[in-house]
Amino acid sequence: MSGPATRTQGPRGLRRFAGPRPPRPETCELCGVAVPAGHRHLVETEKRTLVCACTACSLLFDRPGTRTGRYRAVPDRYLTDPEHRLDDGVWERLQIPVGVAFFFRNAALDRLVALYPSPAGATESELDPQTWQQVLDAGPLAALLEPDTEALLVHRWEGRSGCYLVPIDVCYELVGRMRMLWQGFDGGAEARAALGAFFDDVERRARPVTPAGERS
User: Taking the complete model, does pTM exceed 0.85, yes or no?
Assistant: First the structure.
C-alpha cells in the first residue's frame, strides 16, 4: 500500500510547485511589514525612485523638518486650476507627441523635469526647461508645487486642456498603465479608455485654486 500512496502523493506535490502561485503581497521597503493596496509612497530623492511605505514609516517622513532628507513622503493632495488655458500653438511649441505630460521640480538637479508617457515608459522631454517654466508660471499651481513629491499634470484633448497638481506616484502609475496597454501609433482604444478613466478620477479628487494660489 505504501507504493500507490507514494505515487498518488508525488504528482500532487509536483502540481503544488508547477501550478500558479499567488502574488506576493507588497511590503514596506523600510521595515518589511505587508502593506495594503493604496499604500503611501516615499521618494528616494537621490535616485528619483518611489519606495513603498507602511503608515508608520510614511508618517516618520511626513513631519516638519524631514523634507530635505534622503526620503520624502508623497502628499495626497489634488488641486486644479479652472482658469488654465493651453492652446494648440503653445502645445506645439512644447513638442510633446502625446496629449499628456507631467512636470516636477528636482531638488538635487535644481531644475524642472518634464516627462510624458510612451510605449517605452516615462520619456523625458529634451526641450529647454525655461520654456516649460514660462508656460507653467502662467497659473497658480506652479508656486504650490512641492519638489520631488508632486507634479503638474497637463492634459490636452479635443482642443481643451486641464492642469492639475497631483502626487507624483499617480503620474508613474499612469505611465505604467499606458505602457502595458499601448498598441499601435496612438495607443489604441483600450489605452485611450484607461486614460479617460484616469482623468475622470483626477477631476473628481481635485479641488480648485484661486489665482492667488489658495484652495476655494
Answer: no
Q: CA-CA distances (angstroms) from residue 202 to 37, 58, 152, 153, 172? A: 18, 23, 12, 10, 14
Q: Is the model more confident about 109 or about 122?
A: 122
Q: Please tell me the chain's helix, strand, coil percentages from 3-state DSSP, rounded to the nearest 5.
A: 35, 25, 40
Domain spans, the chain: 1-74, 79-208
Question: Identity (one letter) of the amino acid at 134?
Answer: Q
Query: Are 142 and 136 within 8 A, CB to CB?
Result: yes
Q: Which long-range contacts (CB under 8 A, 24 or more apart) does 112-121 make?
A: 112/136, 115/171, 115/175, 117/174, 117/175, 117/178, 117/179, 118/178, 118/179, 118/182, 119/179, 119/182, 120/179, 121/175, 121/176, 121/179
Question: Averaging pLDDT over each range in 9-13, 126-130, 142-146, 166-170, which range is the top one?
Answer: 166-170
Q: Tally Cβ neighbours within 10 Å of residue 74.
A: 23
Q: What is the pLDDT of residues 157-171, one digit of tens each?
A: 877 888 999 999 999
DSSP 187: B
